[in-house]
Amino acid sequence: MIARPNLFSVSGGDTVQIIKTASALKDIGVDVDVLIHSNIDYSKYNLLHFFNIIDPEDILGHTLKSNLPYVVSTIYVDYKEYDKLHRKDTLGVLSKIFPHDTIEYFKTLAKYIYKGEKVSTLKFFLKGHRRSIQCIIKNASLLLPNSESEYQRLEKDYSIKQKYIVVPNAIDPILFKHDEQYERNIILCVARIEGRKNQLNVIRALKDTSYKVIFIGAISPNQQNYYKQCKAEATENMQFFDFMNQEQLLDYYSKAKVHILASWFETTGLSNLEAGAMGCNLVVGRRGDVEEYFDNNVEYCEPGDLQSIRTAVEKSWNKDASSTLQSKIFNNFTWKVTAKKTHEAYQTILSYDTIR
User: Strand, helix or coil at 339?
Assistant: First the structure.
């Protein structure tokens, strides 16, 4: 498994997805290494598994050098709406002028020149962002999107069909168990602090209300000003905490009546699954692939509409936890299920059974 170089220094949902998938695969007899560096002895492996197709600069070089079959967990997050319509910085201005793939190309080029961030091959700069993604899709043995919706978006945006198997995002059913012993008296938002996650509009919708609102998440390195604005506009009923691991989050999930992720885009929102499993009602931004996971078992909101956010929170606060949602999560979205689907994909490619 080959992941972005800052997988551990800038933790996100993909960090959990990769580590938990690898662990669950090992439990069923698959030999897995998780690598974030560029110097890899490819001869040790039968198959490569990449993550985050939105970062083709981290993938392309390995596909060209290894001559091994590979799969891609696409985690195809779409930043276009937020960047073009709601960012107020230079990137937001440029997004109104240039296509999204062009913006992503120049972002990578700038990080390479000014920050010294490495790319897996300099051929990325010759191909460009869009053609690099198309090359990766075309030559993949299989794509492993988190939902049918995710694959359909990817195919539409890059005009290439490819074989795929849907591999859902998941939770640990032993760790995230519904616990009734706590009084549920907070609204919780677990997510990296960044514009796409939309904490600022949640703050504006719920400021000076009777709700106690807690935000937990690392500050996105390139969005320090966004965090400062969130802090500046937050009122006394709101608190901020830095990144917490899953074990640390248990106490907060147990005390939350509502978990809100009013994002401009989510493939799933891993914290949504965790919170839902622990009996929180969910408020979810109606963007991305979330409806495929949550059906009508959550309250949806429009990320840019403060009244919509406030109304969804009020409805969620005043109803019982959804046993239907919990059952769906525990039956369909566990790391055991994820590992089984991933292993099926590996077997399809390698044509032999690694379980003895």
Answer: helix
Structure tokens at 311: 């109304």
What is the pLDDT, as a whole number, of residue 171? 96
DSSP H or E run through 73: strand 70-73
Tokens 């929170």 belong to 313
Tokens representing 21? 């998938």
The answer to whether residues 160 and 137 touch, using CB atoms and an 8 Å cutoff, is: yes
DSSP SS3 for 187: strand
Is the pTM value of this prediction over 0.70?
yes
Number of neighbours of residue 294 by Cβ within 10 angstroms: 22
Which two structure tokens, joined as six digits, stand for 356? 């003895």
3-state SS class at 8: coil
List the structure tokens of 3: 């992941």
Residue 160, token pair as written in the block: 């290439």
C-alpha 81/C-alpha 196 separation (Å) is 9
The full set of domains in the chain, from first to last, is 13-170+334-350 (3.40.50.2000), 186-332 (3.40.50.2000)
Sheet-wide strand order for 186-190: 238-241, 213-216, 186-190, 256-261, 281-285, 299-301
Q: What is the pLDDT of residues 320-354, one digit of tens each?
A: 988 899 999 999 999 999 999 999 999 999 974 44
